[in-house]
Write a structure and sequence with these properties.
290 residues; six-stranded parallel sheet; three-stranded parallel sheet; 11 strands; 15% strand; binds nicotinamide-adenine-dinucleotide
Length: 290
């Protein structure tokens, strides 16, 4: 079997158009365009590229983009003061602090400093807790984008065995919660997992979020499985590879995401959808209400 490709680029473009239409309708009704502040601390090379893309796409979706750049040696207090200012700015509906942060700054303190209504990354403990309780509000962008990709297969997810490789707060854990909410039977694997190939062979859905190029081998993939490759790994020649060995896995999978052009563009489109949702939340629940 040769897998069908889940074209994240095309699907994300459709989602972005949907968001753009909703933003235009909102503005036509006299409401403010949603505003997204993307905060970058330092000059991490990959982060600069991600931030540039996020800011560009925000404007393409008809939203206001606020660029906030702090020096690499900025203190935690300085960043928290910046977050506080953005929390209080009514034209900013979403705040995204690009991770990783320089080592003098504790990311958990920064995330907890963001007003949960503006937490478009969905990392604030309040939003994480809502996801755990099956009452999601603002959902982590990458896993939510993966769920949109899974929906595009048209397959019934209920009762499927989903194996998530990786347990980070950003991808693996919220991904597992999303799949559980979709009524999959979920196995979470990590660096201490025994017999990973054996577990992956029993998966109807595989989500790889490991950060190791071509780590998941084609012969681990069950015939017809859906393979979602979250990994973005830069090769020595500058090209990108996923966490799945695409050439061998596509010969067995039913569906597979490419890298680039799979999960990556969906993450940005979901961020835009979250920013719109955040603006709607703030219309209904101004700051200070519970
Ligand atoms: P992370 O380093 O925080 O987590 C990696 C996880 O992989 C850990 O939970 C670890 O236990 C697990 N792992 C490591 N070695 C393993 C092994 N041998 N067997 C099983 N599990 C193992 O990384 P992350 O932030 O979750 O990101 C993972 C990958 O996804 C990276 O390549 C990152 O660049 C990419 N990413 C992509 C997007 C996107 O939009 N496409 C978004 C976020 C992250």
């Amino acid at each position: 079997m040769t897998a069908r490709i889940l074209d994240g680029k095309a699907i994300s473009e459709r989602l972005t158009i949907e968001v753009r239409r909703a933003v235009d309708a909102r503005c036509a009704a006299g409401k403010a365009a949603p505003g997204l502040a993307v905060v970058l601390v330092g000059e991490h090379a990959a982060s600069q590229i991600y931030v540039r893309n996020k800011r560009r796409m925000t404007e393409a979706a008809g939203m206001r983009s606020f660029a906030v750049d702090l020096a690499a040696d900025a203190t935690e207090e300085a960043l928290l003061r910046t977050i506080d200012r953005l929390n209080g700015d009514a034209s900013v509906h979403g705040i995204l602090v690009q991770l990783p942060l320089p080592k003098q700054i504790r990311s958990e303190r920064v995330i907890e400093g963001i007003d949960w209504r503006k937490d478009v990354d969905g990392f604030h403990p309040y939003n994480v807790g809502r996801l755990v309780l099956k009452l999601p509000t603002l959902r982590p962008c990458t896993p939510y984008g993966c769920m949109r990709l899974l929906a595009e297969t048209g397959e019934d997810l209920v009762g499927k065995h989903a194996v998530v490789i990786g347990q980070s707060n950003i991808v693996g854990r919220p991904m597992a919660l999303e799949l559980l909410m979709a009524r999959c039977t979920v196995t979470i694997c990590h660096s201490a997992t025994r017999d990973l190939p054996g577990i992956v062979r029993r998966a109807d859905i595989v989500v790889a979020a490991v950060g190791k190029a071509n780590f998941v081998q084609g012969d681990w993939i069950a015939e017809g499985a859906i393979v979602i490759d979250v990994g973005i790994n830069r090769n020595a020649d500058g090209s990108l590879s996923g966490d799945v060995d695409f050439a061998s896995a596509r010969e067995r999978a039913g569906w597979i995401t490419p890298v680039p052009g799979g999960v990556g563009p969906m993450t940005i489109a979901t961020l835009l959808a979250n920013t719109l949702r955040a603006a709607e939340l703030q219309d209904a629940q101004p700051r200070g209400s519970p």
